[in-house]
Specification:
The complex is a heterodimer of chains A (284) and B (315). With 284 residues, chain A is mostly helical. Chain A has 11 helices and no strands. The longest helix of chain A is centred in the N-terminal third of the chain and has 42 residues. Chain B is 71% helix and 1% strand. Classes of the chains: A mainly alpha (284), B mainly alpha (315).
């Protein structure tokens, strides 16, 4: 074989490998989605799944209403805490974040994003659960808020940075105060991107399990009071999947399907919002 | 802090009073660094009693027997390191392949679909990977991979049988899937950051696509890809739920990948709520401290590597 055809062969083979690997990467996604839908659908077919709280093994009609309530309340509180803080911090990073403080905030966010979530759970445990002698839903929300914060900060920052500089200069040239320019001109122009970041953070928080194990533990009763222990959908998936009872395992698959649907929904919404952001930025 | 904005805003305009907006937002933005420092301080303080009780021997002891109050970290460090590195080995070729594919020109429809797919892979909750791994992947791997491996290559210590359904191999496979998005998306950015002139020069010299990738692009992107790899390693080290549900949770050090093991994160998730007394929880918290220090170091190194590449400090 001549040298050139050997080179051609190597090229063709390596390209084939690249396409192969790109397909291999999608295989697990397809398999996870397929099996979660197949295994989870039967659980979602019963209305009791959404209406009733958990019941002990053997008693029919159990559901995961307690977990829905826990996830909604805890993720809600975490969002109220983390999203405003994160948006303001993200705006700050664009407006004034060129100095050393800005660098420190960016680095801290990048490190916080990659810290294991169970370590955040240990932190809340050591700081609050030990001090107040017991887990509560509110402590769980705090742990989730810590996990959401860096996501919101960095996505807000990149959304705000996409807004054309001319808008800022126009506002300043008209004599607007800096805070008016930032909050009434720049931020509205960046809203789709900010919403995307907030949605991604909410989805991340809703799927977190490990920190909740140490901070809120779970609760088989339906409660909306964050001063008590609360359940959550990922906790149901974890606990029920490891039981030997088929109907509890079925419930776990159902809860997993709900989490996956939430993830897909958030991704579609954020993609739409991002497209709007790019259109908006193009118009300005 | 209050004097700096005046100089920034002065260009042309009359001097303004101290910028209250700037001060307030700066204080708010400090939330992230403050929380990070608090996490480190609180975890260290919570672990102090355990450090005093167990001493430095904790890190090298193989014994983990809570009823007898014997606590050692070695089995968990072993399980964490082995599964994370095996996951990297599995994910690296696929991740780089995907990154090269995504960084190419043309075929934008297919590329978009694969990009979205890989992003979704990152968005799926860990616990969903856990239940899928436990009920779908584990039985399949046992039947089609682990048992044949143990039967044919059982003489090699790392494939020694009898193969178990939950073991280090399946935990590593799941970890590989979970770190793939990090690995490929950061590698793609790094490969895109390689100056176009290098690629064009190589193609102009008559090099094929593969020769350009292997001899020009990958060497130029080397340190960034290394950074992406280290960052993925950090993710794998700290991953909790999916590993807890698939690794078998046995505090043993065995050479075979087909045997169950335990990791730092999964022992905390699995045993924390049943840990009674004062010594047992303290030991788990010290394991958490070890995990935190290791992941912090790994991630800081990775962030510095990636930052150096993406800020263009390359020849």
């Amino acid at each position: 074989m001549s040298r050139n055809s050997r080179r051609q062969l190597a090229n063709t083979l390596s390209r084939a490998f690249m396409y192969f690997f790109a397909c291999v990467a999608l295989l697990p996604l397809a398999l996870v989605l397929f099996y979660v839908v197949i295994q989870g659908m039967p659980a979602l077919m019963h209305i009791e799944f959404f209406l009733n709280a958990q019941r002990p093994e053997g008693i029919p009609g159990g559901g995961v209403a307690n977990a829905f309530a826990g996830t909604v309340v805890m993720v809600g509180i975490a969002s109220v805490l983390a999203i405003p803080l994160g948006v303001v911090a993200g705006v700050q990073l664009v407006e004034y974040g060129t100095g050393r403080i800005g660098d420190a905030v960016r680095l801290a966010c990048d490190v916080l994003v990659s810290i294991p979530s169970i370590v955040v759970g240990l932190f809340i445990y050591g700081l609050l659960v030990v001090t107040f002698h017991g887990p509560t839903g509110f402590f769980g929300s705090l742990a989730l808020a810590i996990l959401m914060l860096p996501v919101v900060v960095r996505t807000t920052e990149s959304a705000v940075a996409l807004v054309p500089g001319a808008l800022r200069e126009a506002g300043l040239a008209l004599g607007l105060a800096r805070w008016r320019v930032a909050l009434q001109l720049i931020l509205p122009a960046a809203i789709p991107g900010v919403v995307t970041g907030a949605l991604l953070a909410v989805a991340r928080a809703a799927g977190e399990t490990a920190p909740l194990l140490l901070t809120t533990l779970g609760n088989v009763f339906l409660t909306l009071n964050p001063a008590q222990r609360m359940s959550a959908l990922p906790l149901i998936v974890y606990h029920d999947a490891l039981t030997p009872y088929p109907d509890l395992v079925q419930t776990a698959w159902g809860a997993a399907l709900v989490l996956v649907l939430l993830t897909l929904l958030v991704n579609v919404l954020s993609r739409l919002a991002l497209r709007r952001q790019i259109r908006l930025a193009g118009r300005i | 802090m209050a004097t700096a904005p005046a100089t920034a805003a002065r260009a042309g305009a009359p001097a303004r009073p101290a910028d209250g907006f700037r001060s307030i937002t700066t204080v708010v933005s400090l939330a992230a660094p403050v929380v990070l420092i608090l996490i480190v301080v609180v975890v260290v303080i919570t672990a102090l009693p355990a450090i005093r009780t167990f001493g430095p021997g904790f890190l090298t002891s193989r014994a983990w027997n809570p009823p007898k109050e014997q606590f050692g970290a070695l089995p968990f460090i072993f399980g964490t390191v082995v599964t994370s590195f095996l996951a990297l080995v599995l994910a690296l070729p696929v991740g780089i392949g995907v990154a090269l594919f995504l960084a190419e020109q043309g075929l934008s429809g297919v590329r978009g679909a694969i990009g979205i797919g890989v992003e979704l892979l990152a968005a799926i909750p860990s616990v969903v990977y856990g239940i899928w791994g436990l009920y779908i992947l584990a039985p399949w791997l046992l039947l089609h991979v682990s048992k044949p491996l143990a039967a044919s290559l059982g003489g090699i210590p790392i494939f020694a049988g009898p193969a178990r359904q939950t073991n280090m191999l399946i935990a590593s496979v799941i970890l590989a899937v979970m770190i793939l998005p990090t690995l490929s998306s950061i590698s793609r950015e790094v490969i895109r950051a390689v100056p176009g002139g290098l690629r064009e020069a190589s193609v102009a010299m008559g090099a094929t696509w593969w020769e350009t990738v292997w001899r020009v692009i990958l060497p130029a992107a080397r340190s960034g890809i290394f950074g992406a790899t280290v960052l993925s390693l950090g993710r794998a080290l700290g991953e909790t739920m999916a590993v807890t549900m698939t690794i078998g949770n046995r505090p043993e050090i065995q050479s075979s990948l087909l045997q169950p093991a335990y990791t730092l994160a999964s022992v905390i998730a699995n045993e924390f709520n049943e840990a009674t007394g004062t010594v047992y929880p303290a030991a788990l918290i010290e394991l958490g401290l070890v995990l935190m220090l290791v992941t912090l170091t790994v991630n800081l190194v990775a962030l510095i590597l990636v930052h150096r590449v993406s800020s263009g400090a390359r020849p």
